Amino acid sequence: MLERRSFLKLGSLGLSALTFSGFKSETETRKPIVISTWNEGIAANKAAWNILRAGGRALDAVEQGVMVTESSLNCCVGLGANPDRDGYVTLDSCIMDEHANCGSVAFLERIKHPVSVARRVMEKTPHVMLVGSGAQQFALAEGFPLESAKLSESAQKAYENWLKKSEYKPVANIENSKNESAFYAPKKLENGDWNHDTIGMVAMDANGNLSGSCTTSGMGFKMRGRLGDSPIIGAGLFVDNEIGAATATGQGEDVIRICGSHLVVELMRQGLSPENACKQAVERIIKIKGAAAKDIQVGFIAINKKGAYGGYCIQKGFNFAVCFADDKNFLIDGKYLL
Ligand code: SD4
To answer: How many CB atoms lie within 10 A of CB 171?
Structure first.
């Protein structure tokens, strides 16, 4: 077992001495570890891992990790993502640490790294959540640059395409599938996959402390002002340093309905494994939605204090990235119920 004291000792010897090769037995704790949603999780985990492997804080790891995705103009999460129905990209994000400190921004425009603004809200204000022009005002006062309002090339194309019908259908696509919904209208990637809009990340550092982050452009062509689960502590993200951490992706309205990430953590508190906790949360959504569940996607991922991880989703097509060693950063297909 990699105890804190031996980690610190090894830290001074050089971290290459640590293989972080995971569990040797059921009683062993796997740490550090970071997991995050979707294919983009691989690149994001890599940045997070660089911090974790050097003995850094999980909080720094989950911020730096998802910043990679927020920066990518080819992705779906940051300023390059699809706009709302009125043509504006609006971003939502939250972050939470091992002390239950949390910060959140929503309906934030023209700021590249909403997760970092969320962290500043957490660290520099007496509040948890800032939205809209107030969040932007705070970001500017904190020195974040105001970015262009111009849509990325791919978002401009997608928006023009959407405008042809301007159909408002409040149903989510089945992410990564070929099921095109006018409401969600995910972008098509060069490899033919459909995109999605969010990255959620949870991590445990070498000291055994947990943190999480979640950042999104929300659903493409959403109503102006619409928020999903991603910036809402308890819905899109929840961390309890005694138990574990969870984050969500997919149809935010249905994650909010069950306080999804909080529910997953509470189920782990009752003794469920991360995978089974995520499964039960998904089951609850399916029970509420009935036949309509087949039209939506929700995925949860979670880790517990032992460094066990898991994920579950409604439909086939959700995956997540797990990293706990220099040479162990891999994608897992989420198990699904429908
Ligand atoms: C939302 N949960 O805004 C987000 C969407 C998402 O991959 O996760 N997309 O509802």
So the answer is: 14
Tell me if the bond preceding 32 is cis, omega within 30° of 0: yes
Residues 6+ apart with CB under 8 A from 78: 69, 70, 71, 72, 91, 112, 113, 114, 215, 217
* Architecture of the 30-336 domain: 4-Layer Sandwich (3.60)
Cα Rg of the chain, angstroms: 19
What are the structure tokens assigned to 270, written together? 């009752």
Token pair for residue 41?
């999780």
Which residues, 6 or more positions from 121, have their beta carbon under 8 angstroms from its beta carbon?
A: 103, 104, 105, 127, 128, 129, 130, 135, 138
Contacts of 21 (CB under 8 A, 6+ apart): 325, 328
Q: What is the pTM of this model?
A: 0.89
Q: Which amino acid is at 7?
A: F
3-state helix, strand, coil in the chain (%, to 5): 35, 20, 45
Alpha carbon distance 36, 19 (integer Å): 21
Mutate to test the pocket of ligand 1, among 84, 229, 315 (most ligand atoms within 8 A of CB): 229
**Tens-binned pLDDT, residue by residue, of the chain (338 aa):** 444 444 444 333 334 334 343 455 667 899 999 999 998 999 999 999 999 999 999 999 999 999 999 998 767 789 999 899 999 999 999 999 999 999 999 999 999 999 999 999 999 999 999 999 999 999 999 999 999 999 998 889 989 988 998 876 644 444 444 433 333 334 444 443 445 789 999 999 999 999 999 999 998 899 999 999 999 999 999 999 999 999 999 999 999 999 999 999 999 999 999 999 999 999 999 999 999 998 889 999 999 999 999 999 999 889 999 999 999 999 999 999 99
Ligand 1 and 310: CB distance under 6 A: no
Nearest residue CA, atom 6 of ligand 1? 250
Measured between alpha carbons, how far is 108 from 138 in angstroms, rounded to an integer? 10
CB 41 less than 6 A from any atom of ligand 1: no
